[in-house]
Description:
Layout: E1 2-5, E2 12-15, E3 23-25, E4 32-35, H1 40-58, E5 64-68, E6 71-75, H2 79-86, H3 90-119, H4 128-138, H5 144-158, E7 163-166, H6 168-185, H7 189-196, E8 215-217, E9 224-226, H8 246-266, E10 270-274, E11 277-281, H9 283-292, H10 296-325, H11 332-345, H12 351-362, E12 364-365, E13 369-373, H13 375-393, H14 398-409
Antiparallel strand pairs: 1-2, 3-4, 5-6, 5-7, 8-9, 10-11, 10-13, 12-13
Bound molecules: zinc ion (ZN) (2 copies).
Amino acid sequence: MNQLTCPDCDLIVEFAPLRAKQRAFCPRCGHLLTHRSFRALERSTAFALAGLLFLVLANIYPFLSFSVSGQEQVMTLLQSSQELYRNGSKVLAFFVLAFIIVIPALIIFSLLLVLIPIILKRRPVIGQQLWARFIFTLGPWSMVEVFILGVLASLTKIASMATIVLGLSFWAYVAFTLCFLISLSALDRYQFWRTILPQQSTPAIAGKSAASQGLSNCHICTLTSTNTQHHCPRCGAILHTRIPNSLQRTVSLLITAMVLYLPANFLPITHTDQFGNVLDSTIMGGVILMWEHGSYPVALIIFIASIMIPTAKLCALTWLSWSVSRQNSQNSKQRTSVYRITEFVGRWSMVDVFVVAILVALIQLGGILTIRPGPAALAFSGVVIITMLAAEAFDPRLIWDKLEENKRDQ
Ligand SMILES: [Zn+2]
Ligand SMILES: [Zn+2]
């Protein structure tokens, strides 16, 4: 039998070795513990190689071109970040570059460095654990699919006022996104680490929490070991039975995000200069304008991603922190599901920031029409990034601790 500790509720789960296409779920909180797919490592490597090639191509050719009144503007993928930098939004330019090119490239590069020697049965790469840790630590910070949605939303936004041509680089980036997502989805954390560094977890009693048996679960490689160790013996990640000061950190990050939420919504996100007239637009103003112009799908996407998701996320994390601090032992499964949704949807809020990046890079037609980023763009990306950090700082196992305590007392 195999053993795994559920990262969401800390339960030790025992299960028979999986065959291809089988999955194992936590019986208590429903978390997908592991899945096994046919030739997962080979598939992941093949798609990562193809993805790397497409990413290189995406940086060579024009990404989009935009023409209005006889004037044409061509943008490359890199310009989505460069133009923000040139317009004074240096921090925002850095975030965009990191989320759409640097982090995905680092993930693919690390994946290939680790997997190619394994598949070719060669000696592992130097620093194998570190490269493998990169894949899982950086994973949530790659936003390639959110960027594609941002590109589509910005195209719909400007399609009525100009002729847009999708460049070769755009299609290469779409192909890269598909390869990247397929490559990562084939990779199961538990199966991956078991293959590259086979090591048995410390034996434990199934059906009880790891913490109650003096054990800690590694959030990177899934190995369960005694909680007297500071670092995971397999991957070297820092081990802790519960994230230290999880509630305090989550709450302080939430307060910071709430403070930034005000300028993000009340200051302009873009300044549009048309024939000398400057028009400022806030996030909500942009949604209303698009709705009035009949661009209902884009208005809806921006409304959901920029207004509904951040607000719901702030409320959900505040509620979860409050319920844990009150030592509530009710509805633990539902609260864990709320946490999982919060963690999953957070990145999608960046879509409006990417729309701004595309518009700023594309619409630079001198005195005719120019778009510049407004202060809300940085404040809003701050809200998204800080709420993502708050979700990472929140330890969902705290939701189950009171229940465990009650069980022990009975
Ligand atoms: Zn669980
Ligand atoms: Zn580990």
